[in-house]
Write a structure and sequence with these properties.
The complex is a heterodimer of chains A (about 400) and B (about 300).
Chain A (H helix, E strand, L loop, with lengths): L1 H26 E6 L6 H17 L2 E6 L5 H9 L6 E5 H6 L9 H7 L5 H11 L5 E13 H6 L9 H13 L3 E4 L5 H24 L6 H15 L13 H7 L3 E7 L1 H10 L5 E4 L14 E7 L7 H12 L1 H10 L17 H7 L16 H13 L5 H10 L3
Parallel strand pairs in A: 1-2, 1-3, 5-6
Antiparallel strand pairs in A: 3-8, 4-6, 4-7, 4-8
Chain B lengths: L2 H33 L2 E2 L11 E2 L3 H7 L2 H32 L6 H9 L6 H12 L6 H8 L13 H26 L3 H9 L4 H12 L1 H16 L3 H6 L11 H10 L9 H25 L8
Antiparallel strand pairs in B: 1-2
Classes of the chains: A alpha/beta (about 400), B mainly alpha (about 300).
């Protein structure tokens, strides 16, 4: 009797283990997410994972890693740690993690995936193949309160620097501070101004060899910011401590801010309002070198060694396109990852991204300079009114190269 | 039980601790020191990917403007912040051990910032006390008839951060000093009082000399705190690292993992920063140990 019982129990154990192994092999993928549990994106992802399991039988095991996922990914990918899908900034996926990521080209073709050409082309240029799918596209520019513009009698968004200054004057006359500016983003605003004059290639030349004071475009860009400050077009207290200045748009005290599209959700959440947001491309300057816009993305990628690459890719598409892609865009107030979906939070953003061929970087031509942190403080000082002229500022920049 | 059996037993008892220490402390330390002499991109790269480059990582960091700025900020935190924090906490400790009324309340109140999360504390300072529009300090300034001050502007941000950090640290060091002062026999003070020594004389001739060991400990603790200063700097520059608040550990972090829009990584240079910071802490300990000899004092 005892022998029979032992045999039965052993059999049950072996069969159970076998069943678990089979089940694990066939129907589970592990997703390392850059979101934190409870965030709008995380809520949609969790719901989408349940819907995906109900539809396909594949369970998505989500591990919420948060924004510091970049400190984990290199080591995890190098050690071939067991996970099938992850998300992070697409610049890192395209350049740092590229050797450890799956080539998605064939699966994307088979699924008829198109996405945004600007991100796909950039990923292919960096990694040599399509190795990521955008999950949260971003676009930079001037974000403004349409109601404030209407109150100031402004009918059209400005396209040139002169028109921009006119808009600032009208807003000021209407009693609204024109431009919110937090210290955290002064480098981004000034970089935009500099790009308009000399382009990213010109900035790369300055980064490598200096010569700011001899560069007419650099001097003019700095002078224009100084003039903007002296004209009183910055919000009171600007450059302020993030996010105090940008919040003034939600409080009805300022009208515009230069940032990426996530600023809209941040301001709405911080101030408990729903600003009637609009977006226009950063104004161009006469005889300038570039009219590009900053574009970036948090994207999904699959480790090259994943044994469930197809399931992971299918879930990535399930989440970012169609019904769930629209829900992600709506609930998280972000630009849809699927350009056939509608951007309810920022009309026009999808069209802007689709029209772009090559994205402008996030200060990419300067942020590898050894004195980058000091430069950033100097950009803030420019907005603080510490320099008399653009030439003074550029001379101070050149001093960093000595 | 024989001595031999005892030794075997001792070995088995300490083996888990020794193994853990070797794996989790000695190995990472040795690996970091070794890594600082190699060009290594990723902190977990295989040894095959390491290439020896001598002192190039040290040369790189000591010629990098970001690292130099971070060291200047570290020195400001260590020296200015250290002098103010340790002096203030010693002063408060002396006052609170001199039988004043409500000493329990004051002890608790001054220690309170230490039981609050540093994230909450820093947020309070950044978003409320230093806020330009409605911050406590600017309300005070405008009440007195002056113009508002940009407390978190590029010139003032480091000092604002140090002030906030001091506020959060004084209670901790105060408790250490209080425990030291309470360990000094009261008959020494009674004898000094009978001999006519003033309170100030008692402080300089009894309290301070007998606290040498404690002072040495607090200086070492403060040095470690200043060298590993990270969270407050992150919270005072939440979006991107800024020159006004960068400290060596932030520089190390950005060097090893990259920053916003920065993909370059250099684990070798990051390791060199770690080694330099360790050497600073060891040097400070050795110097204070030599300067503040407390071994000849017994009570």
């Amino acid at each position: 009797m005892k022998k029979l019982l032992s045999l039965t129990l052993a059999l049950v154990m072996v069969l159970s283990l076998g069943a678990f192994a089979l089940a694990d092999d066939a129907a589970e993928i592990t997703y390392w997410s850059m979101w934190n549990e409870g965030e709008p994106q995380a809520n949609v992802i969790a719901e989408a994972a349940e819907a995906y399991e109900a539809e396909t039988g594949v369970h998505v095991n989500i591990e919420w890693k948060g924004r510091d996922i970049n400190t984990l990914l290199s080591a995890a990918l190098e050690a071939s740690e067991s996970f099938d899908l992850f998300d992070d900034d697409y610049t890192r996926i395209g350049q740092v993690y590229a050797p450890y990521t799956y080539d998605l080209t064939e699966m994307a073709e088979a699924a008829g995936y198109e996405g945004y050409p600007c991100f796909n082309n950039q990923a292919i240029e960096w990694a040599g193949c399509l190795n990521s799918i955008p999950e949260q596209p971003n676009v930079g520019g001037v974000f403004y309160d349409k109601d404030a513009f209407e109150a100031a009698g402004i009918e059209a968004a400005p396209t040139t620097w002169e028109e921009f200054l006119d808009v600032c004057a009208k807003l000021k006359d209407a009693g609204i501070d024109p431009l919110a500016q937090d210290g955290a983003y002064t480098n981004f605003t000034f970089y935009y101004q500099l790009v308009r004059h000399i382009g990213e290639d010109g900035i790369a030349e300055l980064r490598d060899n200096g010569g700011w004071a001899e560069n007419e475009g650099a001097v003019a860009a700095a002078q224009e910011i100084i003039d903007l400050v002296n004209a009183g077009y910055l919000a009171e207290g600007a450059p302020d401590e993030y996010p105090a200045s940008q919040n003034k748009i939600g409080l009805g005290l300022a009208a515009m801010v230069v940032c990426a599209d996530y600023v809209t959700a941040e301001v709405d959440a911080n101030t408990g309002t729903e600003v009637n947001w609009g977006l226009f491309n950063y104004p161009t300057v006469e005889g300038g070198a570039s009219a590009d816009a900053y574009m970036g993305a948090n994207s999904l990628a699959i480790p090259s060694y994943s044994e469930h690459a197809q399931e992971a890719f299918d879930f990535a598409l399930f989440l970012t396109t169609g019904e769930w892609g629209q829900k992600l865009a709506d609930d998280a107030a972000q630009i849809p990852a699927d350009p056939t979906n509608e951007c309810t939070s920022l009309p026009g953003a999808v069209e802007t991204l689709l029209a772009a061929e090559k994205p402008m970087s996030w200060c990419g031509s300067l942020n590898t300079h050894p004195a980058w942190q000091t430069m950033k403080d100097m950009f803030t000082e420019l907005f603080e009114g510490k320099y008399e002229t653009g030439a003074d500022f550029c001379a101070a920049m050149d001093a960093l190269y000595e | 039980m024989s001595m031999k059996k005892n030794r075997v037993l001792i070995f088995f008892f300490i083996a888990p601790t020794v193994i853990c220490l070797l794996l989790m402390y000695v190995y990472p330390v040795l690996r970091t020191v070794a890594m600082s002499f190699f060009h290594v991109e990723s902190v977990t790269a295989d040894l095959d990917a390491w290439s020896f480059n001598g002192l190039a990582n040290y040369d790189k960091i000591f010629h990098n403007a970001g690292f130099i700025t971070s060291m200047k900020n570290f020195l400001a935190i260590w020296i200015v912040g250290g002098v103010i924090t340790l002096a203030l906490s010693l002063l408060i400790a002396v006052i609170l051990t001199s039988k004043i009324r409500f000493q329990g309340f004051f002890r608790a109140a001054i220690y309170l910032p230490n039981v609050i999360s540093a994230v909450a504390l820093a947020t309070m300072w950044v978003q409320y006390i230093f806020n330009y529009d409605y911050g406590l300090l600017n309300q005070l300034v405008t009440f007195l008839g002056f113009d508002k001050i940009r407390w978190l502007g590029t010139d003032a941000k480091l000092w604002a951060m140090i002030a906030a950090f001091i506020y959060g640290s004084v209670g901790y060091y105060m408790l250490i000093y209080i425990s030291g002062i309470e360990g000094i026999p009261t008959d020494l003070y009674e004898a000094a009082t009978i001999d006519g020594a003033s309170k100030a004389r008692q402080f300089f001739s009894i309290t301070l000399p007998l606290l040498k060991g404690i002072v040495k400990t607090t200086i070492t603790f403060w040095t470690i705190n200043a060298a590993t200063f990270y969270l407050w700097s992150k919270l005072f520059s939440p979006v991107q690292t800024e020159g006004s608040t960068i400290v060596p550990v932030i520089y190390l972090y950005d060097t090893v993992f990259g920053g916003k829009g920065v993909i370059e990584r250099d684990a070798g240079a990051g390791a060199a920063v770690g080694v330099v910071l360790t050497l600073i802490i060891v040097a400070v300990y050795v110097v204070t140990d030599r300067l503040l000899k407390s071994r000849d004092l017994e009570y």
